[in-house]
Amino acid sequence: MQKLNSGALNRILLFVYILSLSTNAIAQNKNNSKETYLLPPHGNYVYGRVIEKLSKEPMVGVTIRLDGHSTGVITDINGCYVLTLPEKGGLVIYSYIGFETRKIKVTSRQKVDVQMVEATESIQEVIVTGYNSIQKESFTGNTTKIEKEDLLKVNPNNLISAIQTFDPSFRIQENLAAGSDPNSLPQFVLRGQTGIGETTLGQTSTSSISREVLSGNSNLPIFILDGFEVDVEKIYDLDMNSIHSINILKDAAATAMYGSRAANGVIVIERRAPEAGKFRVQYSGVLSAELPDLSSYNLMNAREKLETERLAGLYDSNTPEIDPYTNGYYQRLNNVLTGVDTYWLSQGLRTALNHKHSVFIDGGENDVRWGVELGFRGTEGVMKHSSRKNANAAFYVDYRIGGLQIKNKVTYTYNKSTDVPFNSFSDYSHLLPYMRLYDENGDYVRRLEKFDGASGTQVNPLYEINFYNSFDHSGYDEVTDDLSLNWRITDGLRLRGQFSVLMRNSTGDLYKDPASASYSASTGNINGEKTESTQKRTVIDGSLSLMYNNTFKGHNLNICLSSNMRQTQSTASETRYRGFPGGDLVSSNYAAEVYGKPSSSDNTTRLVGALLTSNYTYNNIYLADLTGRIDGSSEFGSDKRWSMFWSTGAGINIHNYDFMKSNELFSMLKFRASYGLTGKTNFSLYSAKDMYQLQTDSWYPTGYGVFLYQMGNPNLKWERKYTLDYGVEIGLWHDKIYLKASAYDERTIDLITDYTIPSSTGFTSYKENMGKVKNTGVELELRARLYSDRNWLFQLYGSFARNKNTIIEISQAMRDYNKRVEELFSEYNPESSSDSKYAKTYLKYYEGASLTSIYGMKSLGISPTNGKEIYLRRNGDVTDVWSADEWTIIGDTAPKGQGSFGYTLSYKQLSMFASFLYTFGGDAYNNTLVSYVENADIKNDNVDKRVLLDRWQKPGDITTMKDIRDRNVTTGASSRFVQKNKTLQWSSLTMSYNFRLEQLKKLHLSGLRLSFTMNDLFYWSTIRQERGLDYPYSRSFNLTTNIIF
User: Which 8-state DSSP code applies to residue 666?
Assistant: First the structure.
């Protein structure tokens, strides 16, 4: 950054000095303002003045009302009020957004001066949108608010996993491959998939999810942390103890203020701020044990496997697969009889012992508040040599002078991650159980046994992991400076400026030891490989907002005018080296050569926008919201950089009518509806631009050559989503029972997809707005406080969500993609093909289908006559010939219902919390049945115990599986392997104890709580298939200590 010259610095200091003088003057005038009251000549009343406790300034707009009444009065410019009371007096309530509500009992005419204290914890009645705070009761948007304490009850280590317990439409997509890998970032959706994304053949209905930071994901909601957008990895590594609260914004009325980024929803996270007047030290520590969960595997032991091979005919003298029979069979039998029974599943795994620590120190006086955060999290994965470690430190200062508030928070985060190099769990989970893992000395064998009839020897993957210096390291260090300025210009008018700078340096090192057994002797001295990658990312984010709030004669108006700018710049490079002299000499200086050309990239994007949003209420009964936003992005073509987004909402609080006040049944009855337009920019960089590539392989007299390798589209524009959302909130018997019901209809248009063009142009496709997708659904949330008294509390909660996705329109490129899927099977022979890729079910696109449909041939089962599978063609004809041209929809992975339920039970200081997740009505393609039962490679792999069950053997047999002798012929994707998928997961159980005040005094503490949490205790599914293919799932047990000194 360029240095400021002395003249510019002097002007800034002069401006700050004048600003401080003006704010002091305003504050002085307010403090010297006179108290004036217009007291009624008759009747009972209460009067007085309301001030802020710390600054001693009068507070304007504080609502004062009698308990049980919806209307009241508000304080004037001097903070004064007069409220008429009944003759016997009553309970007077003082409330203001962001401050703790005061309740004071008044009997006769008297003056009551009140000091309002700023709320130190988020209150449920306030929704934080990232731009302003709005009373939940007066807001027409659809939101879900989650408190920090509730999150910690569910999972003290994984924030994203905890969120899905509290919102039924927020769900992490199951990743059968990645399991509980600590370095695998989760993929999740809010209200279903809204985008198509990349149409590549690598995407299947069960494919593993990318382990990268999920940028460019067309279905991912955005995260707002303390007013600034951040990526998923930052949230994944965020210390949960630093969180204040979370607000999930779902409909257009709630999200339109984020315009072009809001189509998939917005998740707003507030972090805690220091309190004034106190010096506190808070410590939170978590000790946890993580155990591998292998319950989904159903593999054979050594004796069962050898007997299965014999029964399957591997050693049949007439048609032997392993020859000669005698040596091939008896070598294996000898191992079994001598006790060889290797349980490969448990090899390379461990019980991981992890720990997490968080310290928060805060204090200060009225004008200056400060806070210090320190945190460390060490996570060892259940696979050996996998880990993720995070350390963070932050300093927060809050300076107030008169009506001016300046806040600054500087945060440093360090991450170091380690993955298992060149190995995944699937590399050895299905190895033959009668193969020896150790030699006669008890050491790992370098290569596995070679039996007669086997084609060759295998490298022992566990030897590779434990005895070679191969590694896969990555990490980053990040510095963030968040600066905020709030200026209360006049009563009800505030100016807020926010500025943030984020700088991240990421590195990655992948190294393969030259002594690895995977190298053959012929490669000579070029053994050993290393890939070094670096990335530097800088994000500059700023906004300026003018906010107005006023209440007059029952009308309340909340307006926010804002503008923002965001710039993201990243540079990345990668270099590959080859030929290392030894496993310990890992520096790139020892490499014999640079393999290929080093690659580099440099990207810059900018987003600017302006926003006007307003919230209006009358007597807190009639509600209205209106938002308009214009955004401009550098990612689009020059003709379509700007776009308008908007929303409108209306609602009514029936419970606030006077005639409802005497009703003991309804404590809340609210109806609301909203409609609006939002957008998104989640696609690969520079999709709208012509892009050129340097011809660096040759040198010309004028320098490098350049050629056009991507055709841009100057008319490419935002994907847009129109959302209609309506719902009702009902509270019964003082909210002992609370019900929230919502329904929505979302239509996403102008989906960005590839558009096919004639190859004569030199290209095959370019980006175009072509597709349309619809999502409709319902959401239900229920809470019931069944019993409560002085000592006991028992309450239940439950939620339900249903989303239906429909493709309305597809592009020509999607039709061409469908043809490429069919061409993939052009060489498939149903009588002889053995490649496993032919058994996969690939995603296809058809109008009227969904983005979660499963495709294959409709199966009528196995023919009792000849054991062949019978299929139903799309025209209704029956055939025994499988063809990719006849693929149709055979299932849908989207459930017909999903949600959570649980309970809270407490007795005095002891409490218990349990939560469960469920799904029903969806389908799944059971790949375990395909790969390890129907098409099991019995000769080379351990297989599922069901491999011989229900097999066709002779004419007349009615079975579900083909003849075991046909196992080497790959079965094409068919509905025979699609099964209904109902799941129930016991996600958490937490027991905690809060120490009593007299106990704390003896310990000289302000607070002490002990908690024990168990996560992922139980998983049940109607489908029996293997989970955690590349990395196993796990269960965790956590002991948490929270101390306040």
Answer: E
